Task: structure prediction
Amino acid sequence: MATEEEPRDDRSVVENGQASDGRAWDYLLQTWRELDVPEGWRAEIDERQIVLVPPPHAHHNGIAAKNQRRLYATLPEDLEIYQTLGIHIAPLGKLYVPDLVVMPAELIAAAAPETSDPMDASEALLVVEITSRGNAREDRTKKYRAYARAGVPMYLLIDRFDTRGPMATLFTEPNGDGTYKHTDAVPFGKSLTLPSPFDVELPTGEFPGAI
Result:
């Protein structure tokens, strides 16, 4: 397994969908439901295959915790923050497990108890991805496009490996073409404001690894 400093992709492909599009998705989703994922790992569906994502660096987890603590300070009672929630990007046949997802609690409560199906990404109010060295490209490109196509209203990308230095970027106002109309980016050390329903400032200077 690569360390945090090694610039390689440690994700492992465990299944490929070989049937037609509809049957391939059904097969992959059923396999995803039944997969016994090692503790700390995440299983995602991308490019018609199941990919295992290894546990991240401690700084990655620390940043997620800082964001979650700050969000809870102003979070409306009907919303909750989830760390290991699978979300389905229906227009693209993808399934991701973001670092943080904010979604109405009533949708989680209404989920079928007998299956572990992913939630619809279009129901999320905020998705947060924190890059690791091996997956930064996917978070900046494929996941950016996927969340925009799904209509996720806010995508927060915390990129510790941006060529400009560590950056936090909030994308808002998704387009159907897979882009966001508005981008607000700040380097670590400056605050980033999340609009309603959060109405909160994220103090990126408090993130682990910030200078």
The first helix runs from residue 21 to 34. The first strand starts at residue 12 and ends at 16.
